Amino acid sequence: MLRSMTGYGKATTEFQKKQITIELRSVNSKQLDLNTRLPGIYRERDLEIRQIINQRAERGKMDFSISLDNQSDEKSISLNRSIVKSYYEELKFIAEETGQHHVDFVGTIARLPEIWNNTRPELSEGEWLILKAGIVKALDAFDEFRTAEGKSLEKDLTQRIETIQKLLVEVTPFEKRRGELLKQKLETKIKEAVSVENIDNNRLEQELIYYIEKLDITEEKVRLTTHLQYFIDTMNEPANNGRKLAFISQEIGREINTIGSKANDADMQKIVVLMKDELEKIKEQMLNVL
After folding, report:
1. CA Rg, the chain, in Å?
2. I need a labelling partner for 179 at 20 to 30 A (CA). Which of 73, 133, 165, 269 fits?
3. Bridge partners (DSSP) listed for residue 62
4. 2.60.34.10, 3.90.550.10, 3.30.230.10, 3.30.420.10: CATH of 7-71+123-146
5. pTM value?
6. 47 exposed, middle or buried (CB, 10 Å; 0-12, 13-18, 19+)?
7. CB burial of residue 139 (10 Å; 0-12, 13-18, 19+)
8. Over the stretch 137-158, which tens digit does the pLDDT of each residue have?
9. Residue 9: how many CB atoms within 10 A of its CB?
10. Domain ranges of the chain
11. Is 252 exposed, middle or buried (0-12, 13-18, 19+ CB in 10 A)?
């Protein structure tokens, strides 16, 4: 069963007056590349959130985000009145000593960071449990999306593998005809170059057999058929085998290229080109298989 690296999952949950929206989307990548965007109150749990996602996601370039529709109580800012008064008294005293009577004390003090108290509420265990359950729910939706996409990929890949198998069968008639034409062509060339009485027919027959055997593609056809079936079998395995399938597709390409190099026939070459075209489309699809 194939799963796609492209996925999307969303879940919403609530804690007290907060509505929490959790989203996860991914595209293909060789490794896991996870980017998280969290509200300040949840950043202390970033490592744990990543571990939860890593256990389910495996591979892909992923963006994970949490948003709150009510963040008014997430961060509160208050004025440190005692420090403000101290600044004011000191600045007022200096102004009187230097004769500066029109100084904007409030504007000057407001730019000083020490006058503000920034407080952030701590994440309670109850809210964390609610959030974690929401993350799992989003991951479930994410997995469903990947599985649905994987079924479409599996259908397309199966059709292309079957097309290559059919094209391989179409090679056989041209392969037999090629041997006969090649034998006739070689005999004609030799007879043109050497007089008939000087031709050793036994030696000629041996050379023809040797030359034709060098162009024989029986082994390549057997190996290619085996690789094609192995590809189908691997797709049906329960594990995620994207990397394994990519390796098998390389082996399929190796056999197709060898058949092309041995073809020595225009009609066979056309079939080989069609097989290569299908294989390239398979490789493009494989980039998105988990």
Report:
1. 36
2. 165
3. 26, 34
4. 3.30.230.10
5. 0.73
6. exposed
7. buried
8. 999 999 999 999 999 999 999 9
9. 22
10. 7-71+123-146, 76-119, 151-286
11. buried
